[in-house]
Amino acid sequence: MAKKNYNYFEQFEKQMQLCETAAEQLVDMLADYTDTHNKAERIHDTEHKADELLHGLMQELNRSFVTPIDREDIVQLANALDDIADSIEDIANLFDMMSIEVVKPEAKEMSRLIIEGSRALSALVSEFHLFKSSKKLTDLIIKVNDIETKGDVLHRSVMKEMFKHETDAVEIIKWQQIFDNMEDALDNMEDVADLIDGLVIKNS
């Protein structure tokens, strides 16, 4: 039987809080680049908690007769939030798996954009339940999109410089994967912001 007091909006917030935690752990990992395997494992543990939240939400949805927004929209948003946690874990795994010895300054800068984006998106997700009356949602959506744009600019810049000056093909392959995945994390955040924007329009 479905829980009468189950709050989908609160579950979205909890999912996003774990994404923010993973982003903070990534920033810490790159800022103090030691014991990388264990730090990557901590990010994996956070991502696993996010998976458990997603599974619990889906189980509850299967038992629910009435939902605050359409069921397919709940599924889409929950999965989009989970994609953020997955993408941050992928970044940490790449640093560990490819035995990166020295972190490029641009990677640290990109990680700071990831935490900035996650904080802005957390504020947006927390505001989502007020979509019928909130005056903040549009500004928060724009903020997330602006951060993703900064990530695009940084991604293009660092890749251009690397292809111009780096002579080691293996290094190019490694760092291209890392920066592409960092950009994916920011893209996933923008996807959630745009999805919420569409849901606000749909349900208002």
List keywords for this structure.
Methane Monooxygenase Hydroxylase, Chain G, domain 1; 81% helix; 204 residues; 6 helices; mainly alpha
Q: Characterize the overall form.
A: globular
Q: What's the count of strands?
A: 0
Per DSSP, the total helix count is 6
CATH domain class name: Mainly Alpha
Oligomer: single chain
Largest sheet: none
Average pLDDT metric: 95
Strand-residue proportion:
under 5%
How far is the first residue's CA from the last residue's CA? 30 Å
Question: Would you give an account of this structure?
Answer:
This protein has 204 residues and is mainly α. The chain has one domain: Methane Monooxygenase Hydroxylase, Chain G, domain 1. It is built from 6 helices and no strands. It has helices at 8-31, 36-63, 71-97, 105-127, 137-165, 169-203. Helix 1 (8-31) packs antiparallel against helix 4, helix 4 (105-127) runs parallel beside helix 6 (169-203) and helix 5 packs antiparallel against helix 6.
